[in-house]
Amino acid sequence: MTASFEKAMKLAVLSGLKAALGPALLKTAQRKPDASHWVAAAIGEMVLDKVGFVPSRRSLPLLIPHAISGAWVAMESMREDGDEDPWAAPMGAVVAAGVATIAPMLRVTGSTVLRIPDAVLGVAEDYFALKLGTETLGLTMNDVSDAAKQSVEEIKERVMPVVQSIGAGSM
User: Fold this and answer.
1) Does the chain have fewer CB atoms within 10 Å around its N or its C terminus?
2) DSSP track, 21-58
3) What is the CA radius of gyration of the chain?
């Protein structure tokens, strides 16, 4: 297995944990202008994961975006590394779907057998994912933090004028 393929599969693992995280970290590492959109989606996905009213990612409607994300991030990573492997996208999809299926089962086992609160396991999962992603792409946790801050600032810049116009219209 080449280093490029291994990197692509690690990114597919991230997409299995959080569908938006693989693309968010890859685009952040590539310094792409649309990275902040993916970062916002990844942050939102992490938050929604903790509130508990979202169906399991192993359910078919949520498994599909994880698989698509895994395929895309594997293919994009390989392309960026100058490697063309026709198996990267299908393998990325399979890896992401597998992780998306197994991770919730591990969390259930951890919360029922070990009696660890699900929210704690969720935060540990997010930390693991961020650590794997940063190490895979040569990013630091500060890079991730800066990307999150930039994404939140961009959202504020877009949302605040709308909120202010709604408030002004009600007077």
Assistant:
1) C
2) HHHHHHHHHHT-TTHHHHHHHHHHHHHHHHHS-SPPTT
3) 17
Q: Which residue has the tokens 């609160």?
A: 117
The residues near 85 (Cβ < 8 Å, ≥ 6 apart) are: 2, 4, 5, 78
Query: Residue holding tokens 């393929």?
Result: 5
Q: 9 with 15: CB under 8 angstroms?
A: no
Q: Tokens at residue 168, please?
A: 């002004």
Give residue 153's pLDDT band: very low, low, confident or very high (50, 70, 90).
very high
Instruction: Please tell me the total number of residues recorded for the chain in this structure.
Output: 171
For the chain, the structural domain boundaries read 3-169
- Using alpha carbons, select from 149, 123, 122, 135 the residue that is nearest to residue 39: 149
